[in-house]
Write a structure and sequence with these properties.
This protein is α+β, with helices and mostly antiparallel strands. The protein has helices spanning 7-19, 43-50, 54-58, and strands at 23-28, 34-38. It has a two-stranded antiparallel sheet with strand order 1-2. The mean pLDDT is 93. It contains three helices and two strands, in the order αββαα. Helices cover 34% and strands 14% of the residues. The protein has a domain at 7-58.
Length: 77
């Protein structure tokens, strides 16, 4: 991933979302998918926040699906 175009701006953007508490967990799944666990009020709010990602604007990161999730075991910050 680090060799992809605009890696540093994308990484900085994602680190900001993490610091703000929007992204709680994230990482690659089986190529080419990535899983993000976010805290948001709606699917539209998620789309709006990720629209500013340099990789999203370049078409390198697309939203495949958004699914509400109820945490039943453990805890997130």
């Amino acid at each position: 991933m680090e060799q992809q175009e605009a890696w540093r701006p994308h990484a900085d953007f994602m680190n900001t979302l993490l610091a703000e508490g929007f992204v709680l967990l994230g990482g690659p799944l089986e190529e080419p998918d990535v899983l993000l666990i976010v805290r948001a009020e709606s699917a539209d709010a998620i789309r709006a926040r990720l629209a500013s990602d340099p990789w999203h604007r370049m078409g390198l990161l697309t939203i495949k699906s958004i699914s509400p999730w109820t945490l039943r075991l453990g805890a997130l910050p």
